């Protein structure tokens, strides 16, 4: 069965799968005037799937007025240059990841484990560089569909962010937390600082929301906050070695 082109999470909030049904996800926020803010752009090969997802919700690339990146990894920023060209939309990313986006280079990875040391030796490949028009900061409220709050959750990358859409009580985790074979942290070798990832993810348990969209994995629309808080509590109880 072909993956869905777009999945509604809340009024005006959509998940657009770019790998499989939910392997890697972008998101679209539709404003009252019909304009679209696109969150993440997948791999370099993802733009055709994003355009198809926009079409499925009755939108065209010309409707995209802003592109927000949760972080500067190739599976999230790889399609940014192409989508910026297709849409003419400015790109926004946290100030601590902006330099990586503008040079098309991924941030360094955590080398505190053997797997991390191995991954660090592999060619990163990078992604097409794109100009950053807006450098985001923690707590900033973006004028997107009634307000989209920037929540700094560094660790997966130096400037990683999550996003809270307060009007629909929807959280976009970015890669702070995955929902792959259950809710979990991003694997250590994929992070810049895994211990920091674990610490800052707990911010997400203190926010108010109901539905959760994950950039890796399917959404949890009913009881999403409960699921996230339950995972974070168990993670503390397990005292995973750092």
UniProtKB/TrEMBL annotation:
Top-level taxon: Bacteria
Pfam families xref list: Lactamase_B
Signal peptide: none
Metallo-beta-lactamase domain segment(s): 23-216
UniProt cross-references to InterPro entries, sorted A to Z: Metallo-B-lactamas, NDM-1-like, RibonucZ/Hydroxyglut_hydro
Protein name per the record: MBL fold metallo-hydrolase
UniProt organism field: Pseudonocardia aurantiaca
